[in-house]
Write a structure and sequence with these properties.
- The complex is a heterodimer of chains A (449) and B (296).
- The longest helix of chain A has 33 residues, at 26-58.
- Chain A is built from 14 helices and nine strands.
- A five-stranded antiparallel sheet of chain A has the order 2-3-9-6-7, with no helix packed on it. In chain A, strands 1-4-5-8 form a four-stranded mixed sheet, with no helix packed on it.
- Chain A has helices at 2-11, 26-58, 72-77, 81-112, 118-126, 133-143, 152-164, 314-339, 343-351, 356-384, 388-393, 399-402, 405-413, 420-448; strands at residues 174-175, 180-183, 187-190, 199-205, 229-235, 258-262, 268-273, 279-282, 291-294.
- Chain B is mainly alpha-helical and 296 residues long.
- The longest helix of chain B has 53 residues, at 2-54.
- Classes of the chains: A alpha+beta (449), B mainly alpha (296).
C-alpha cells in the first residue's frame, strides 16, 4: 500500500499545494503523522508507560522509598496472611467465574435463539452490564441481608427449605409447668424420673394456633401400660384459660412430636412419636428409672438465614453477584457468534437425525469455540482485576476474608496502611498475571493483521 | 440444491405444517418457562433496590422490600426528595457528570486523531507502535495509582476534576484507539485517495471524510467511555477527597450500611438510573461497541 501511493505520487510532478505525502517529502509525512499521534502519545507515556516503569522500580524500595530492599516486598506478598488470602481468593475467582460466566452465557444464547421474545430477555439479562459494579454491589448487599424477613436471597431459600424440610413444628413452644425443664437446643425433659407403668404429661404452651398441626385431636391421657411407659404431649392451653399441667376438654394433642426415653446417663434408649391425640407409648421397657424428654428437633427454630456476608461465604456470595453482572456480556457476544453459524449446517444435522443435544455438543459448541475463548479470556482479565464489587459487598469486618489482589493493592497503598513499596509490588504482581493473557491477545491480533 | 430440498421436503411438510407448528410451540414451552423464570431472576435484584429505595425510612430496617408490593402504604417518594436535598449527593452527581463528559469527549478526540494516523498515515514502526497500544489494553489501573498519586500531588491537580478526567482519558485511550482504527481502516481507500489528490490536507480529510463516516463507531465508543467513567469507583476513590463522584459519595456511607440504607438505596438507584437511560437509549451502539471490542 505504501509503495503504491508513493509510487503514484512520484510519477506525477508534485503540484504546488499538493498534499504533504507527495513522494519527495517523506519527512513532511512523518511530521503530519507525529502531529496526529502527539496527544495520544503524551497521555499514554505520562499516565501508562512512565507509571509502569516507576511502579516496578518503586516495588524494590521500602515503605519510605529511601531504602533499597530488593525482593523483600515480594516476600511479604507471599507470606503475609491477608495478602496470601487475597492471592488464594483471586485464584478461586479465576478458577470458577470465567467458566461459569461463559457456560451461562452459552446456555442463555442457545435458549434465547429459539424464542420470539429474545430481545426482551437479552435486554433484561444484559442490563446489569450498564450499571456500575459498585452499584451492583449495593444491590446485592440488600439481597444478602441475613434476616430472611429482609434479605431476599434468604427469604427465597427459606420458602424452599420450609417446603422441603419444615422447621420444628413447635419452634416457639415452652413448657406449661415447671415439671419440664431444658433448653430448645437439648430438648425439654421431665424433672421427675419415671418408672415402668407410669403415665407422663408433657404440657406445652406458647404455640400459636397456626402452628398446631391440622390433624391434632383432643388430647387424651392414656392408660398405664404394663411393662411400658405412656404419656401425652399436648397444647396445655385453651381459650379462656384452664389449669396448667392438667389435660382439659378442648385442649389439643400435639401429633408427630418425637418423644425420647432417656436412661440415667441421659442417653436415649427409645423414641416414640405421638398420635393425633398426643399420646405416645414405650413398650417393653426394662425396669429402672427414666426420664421422658421431647427431642430437640421438635423445637428446631425456623430458618434463620444464611450468613452470606459472613467470613465463610463472602467470596462465593460476591462471585454470584459478579456472574449476575457479566452473564449478559457473555450471552450477547456468544449470541452474535451463534448467528454467524450457517443454519444449513444445523438443519443438515437435524435432518440426519441428530437430536438437539447432539447438535449443540457436536456442531454448535465446536463452531463457537473461538467466541467462547474470547469470552473466557476477557473474563479472566476482568476477574484478575476485580475490585469495586468486592469492596462494596464485603462489610469492612470481612474484607480480609474477601480480599483479592486489586483490593489488597488499594488497601495497602491508600486504605490506611499507606505502604507504597508493598503496594507497588502487589501492582506489579497483578500486572505479571495479566501478561500471559496479553500475549494471547497480541498473537491473535497479529494473525488478523 | 435448494430446489431439490424443496421438492423432497415439500409434499411431506406442507400438510403437517400446522401440526408441526403446534408441536414445535409445545416443545418449546419448557424453554419459554425457563427463560421467563431466568429473566425474572435477573430482574429481581435491581427491582429490589428500587423498592427498597421507596420504603418509609422508619420501616426499611424491619420489613422486606417484597412486603411493600402488597402493602403500598409502606412506600414513599420522600427518600428521593431527601436525597435530592442532600448537598453532598447532589454535588456528587454534578461532579460525576462533569468528569464523565470531559473524560468522554477528550479521549474520543485524541483517539480519533491517533486512530486515523494508525489507519491511513505512513510512519516508521507503525505496526509496532500499534501493537504497543494493544498491549496497553490490559495494563491494570493499579500499576498507575501510586506514581500518578505522587505526580498529582507534585503538580497540584490532586483532588480536581481535571486530574480525574486526564486519568480516565489516558486509560480509555488504548481501547478507543484500537476500536477507531479498526473502524477507520474499513473506510474505502478511494475516498481518502481522492481527497488527497484533490489537495485536501490530512486534517481536512480527517474532519470531512473520516469523522462523518466514523460516527457509528464514535457513538459506540462515546457510550462505552461515558458509562465506564460514570461507573468508576477505583480512580475517584484514589485521586479525590473533596471531589467526589456519586460512587465515592455512596461508598463513604457504606460503613453504616444498615443505618444509612434509606439514603444509600435511593442514591444508588439514582447513580444507576442515568447509565440505564443511556443504555436503553443507545442499546444498539452499546452492543456494537461491545462486539467490536471483544470479537475483533
Amino acid at each position: 500500500m505504501a509503495q503504491a501511493s508513493t509510487g503514484a505520487a512520484a510519477a506525477a510532478e508534485p503540484l504546488p499545494g499538493a498534499p504533504p505525502d507527495a513522494g519527495g517529502r517523506p519527512w513532511g509525512n512523518y511530521v503530519v503523522a507525529a502531529a496526529f499521534l502527539a496527544p495520544a502519545a503524551a497521555l499514554l507515556i505520562v499516565w501508562i508507560v512512565y507509571p509502569i516503569v516507576h511502579t516496578t522500580y518503586r516495588s524494590f524500595f521500602d515503605r519510605s522509598g529511601d531504602e533499597f530492599v530488593a525482593l523483600d516486598n515480594y516476600r511479604t506478598l507471599f507470606s503475609d496472611d491477608t495478602l496470601v488470602t487475597a492471592i488464594k481468593n483471586n485464584a478461586l475467582w479465576v478458577l470458577f467465574v470465567p467458566a461459569f460466566v461463559t457456560a451461562i452465557g452459552l446456555v442463555f444464547a442457545v435458549l434465547v435463539e429459539k424464542v420470539r421474545f429474545s430481545v426482551a430477555f437479552k435486554t433484561v439479562v444484559f442490563m446489569p452490564m450498564a450499571i456500575s459494579l459498585f452499584a451492583a454491589g449495593v444491590i446485592w448487599r440488600v439481597m444478602y441481608e441475613q434476616d430472611p424477613s429482609r434479605g431476599a436471597v434468604n427469604a427465597g431459600i427459606g420458602v424452599v427449605k420450609d417446603a422441603v424440610d419444615p422447621g420444628g413444628v413447635l419452634s416457639t413452644a415452652r413448657p406449661s409447668t415447671e415439671a419440664l425443664t431444658g433448653t430448645p437446643q437439648g430438648g425439654l425433659e421431665l424433672t421427675e424420673t419415671v418408672g415402668v407403668g407410669e403415665v407422663t404429661r408433657l404440657g406445652l404452651t406458647g404455640i400459636p394456633s397456626s402452628d398446631v398441626p391440622a390433624d391434632a385431636a383432643d388430647a387424651v391421657v392414656p392408660e398405664p401400660l404394663a411393662g411400658g411407659i405412656t404419656g401425652v404431649v399436648w397444647r396445655d392451653f385453651r381459650p379462656g384459660g384452664g389449669e396448667a399441667g392438667v389435660v382439659e376438654d378442648g385442649e389439643l394433642g400435639l401429633p408427630g412430636v418425637t418423644v425420647e426415653l432417656r436412661d440415667d446417663s441421659g442417653s436415649s434408649v427409645a423414641t416414640a412419636s405421638t398420635a393425633e391425640d398426643g399420646t405416645f407409648a414405650f413398650e417393653d421397657v426394662a425396669s429402672g428409672s427414666y426420664r421422658v424428654a421431647i427431642g430437640e428437633e421438635t423445637f428446631a427454630t425456623s430458618f434463620a438465614g444464611i450468613s452470606w456476608l459472613g467470613p465463610k461465604l463472602i467470596t462465593p456470595a460476591i462471585m454470584i453477584a459478579y456472574i449476575w453482572v457479566w452473564a449478559g456480556f457473555a450471552m450477547v457476544v456468544i449470541a452474535a457468534g451463534l448467528s454467524a453459524i450457517p443454519r444449513d449446517l444445523l438443519e443438515a444435522a437435524r435432518t440426519d437425525g441428530a437430536n438437539e443435544w447432539q447438535v449443540f455438543r457436536r456442531i454448535t459448541v465446536p463452531l463457537l469455540a473461538p467466541v467462547l475463548t474470547v469470552v473466557f479470556i476477557t473474563m479472566i482479565i476482568y476477574v484478575l482485576k476485580v475490585f469495586d464489587i468486592v469492596i462494596s459487598i464485603a462489610p469492612g469486618s470481612v474484607q480480609d476474608n474477601a480480599n483479592v489482589i486489586a483490593l489488597a493493592m488499594w488497601r495497602t497503598s491508600f486504605g490506611g496502611v499507606n505502604d507504597f513499596g508493598l503496594g507497588s509490588a502487589i501492582a506489579v504482581f497483578l500486572f505479571i498475571l495479566v501478561i500471559p493473557v496479553l500475549a494471547v491477545n497480541i498473537r491473535r491480533f497479529r494473525r488478523e493483521v | 440444491m435448494a430446489t431439490a430440498t424443496a421438492e423432497a421436503a415439500g409434499p411431506v411438510v406442507v400438510p403437517e405444517s400446522r401440526a408441526t407448528r403446534i408441536v414445535a410451540i409445545l416443545g418449546k414451552t419448557p424453554v419459554y418457562v425457563t427463560l421467563v423464570v431466568l429473566g425474572l431472576l435477573w430482574l429481581v435484584p435491581t427491582f429490589g433496590l428500587l423498592i427498597t429505595s421507596l420504603i418509609l425510612p422508619g420501616e426499611v430496617q424491619s420489613v422486606g422490600w417484597w412486603e411493600a408490593l402488597t402493602d403500598t402504604s409502606l412506600l414513599t417518594i420522600d427518600n428521593y426528595r431527601e436525597v435530592l436535598q442532600n448537598e453532598a449527593i447532589t454535588s456528587a452527581i454534578w461532579t460525576t457528570l462533569w468528569i464523565s463528559i470531559g473524560a468522554t469527549i477528550l479521549p474520543i478526540v485524541v483517539a480519533a486523531l491517533a486512530g486515523y494516523a494508525f489507519a491511513w498515515l505512513e510512519f516508521p514502526a507503525r505496526d509496532w507502535l500499534f501493537l504497543g497500544v494493544v498491549a496497553m489494553l490490559v495494563v491494570p489501573i493499579q500499576m498507575a495509582l501510586i506514581p500518578i498519586f505522587s505526580l498529582y500531588n507534585d503538580v497540584g491537580i490532586f483532588d480536581t476534576i481535571l486530574g480525574l478526567v486526564l486519568f480516565h482519558t489516558a486509560f480509555g485511550l488504548p481501547f478507543a484507539i484500537f476500536l477507531l482504527r479498526s473502524f477507520f481502516i474499513g473506510i474505502p481507500k478511494d475516498l481518502i485517495e481522492a481527497a488527497r489528490i484533490d489537495g485536501a490536507s490530512e486534517l481536512r480529510i480527517f474532519a470531512r471524510v473520516i469523522l462523518p463516516l466514523g460516527l457509528p463507531a464514535i457513538a459506540s465508543l462515546a457510550i462505552f467511555q461515558f458509562l465506564w467513567v460514570w461507573n468508576d469507583l477505583l480512580v475517584a476513590l484514589t485521586f479525590g477527597r473533596e471531589t467526589q463522584p456519586i460512587t465515592v459519595a455512596i461508598f463513604s456511607q457504606l460503613r453504616q450500611f444498615g443505618a444509612n440504607i434509606e439514603l444509600i438505596a435511593p442514591a444508588a438507584f439514582l447513580s444507576l438510573a442515568i447509565p440505564l437511560v443511556v443504555f436503553f437509549a443507545f442499546q444498539r451502539y452499546f452492543v456494537q461497541g461491545l462486539l467490536a471490542g471483544s470479537v475483533k
